[in-house]
Design brief:
single chain; TATA-Binding Protein; two-stranded antiparallel ribbon
Amino acid sequence: MKTIQSSLTGVQGAFGYIRDSLQQDGFTLANWEYDGGYFDKELDDKGMVFLRLPIEVKHGKLDDTDARIEFGTPFVLKHVYRTGVENHIGYAAGPVASAMMNQFQEPVDKDAQVDDQWVQQATDIVRRLEQRFA
């Protein structure tokens, strides 16, 4: 995992507006509870490298479009999954398989080393988001 220093950290806004805006950039809401969660954007074609934007609810509940949320510090993470035939679960995981297909598979390495190219790509995305939200 690599954190990205950003002026986005601490920025607040309406959940509905932020969700809708981030969805246009390919982000999805992940690992959420009513008091917080993450917006994730897949960076690679194997579903292993993600830009993650943590959010915390400051007022309301996360499923309410008017809930007030605050961004945490963005970071890039890499989850390494098994590849090859997974006989016990009934499918083959190959280059076209993503983490979405393997959603119930435990990563081999939840915090694998993140290559500089992914950190740079994530940083570029965060800089564009800073212009939009900060």
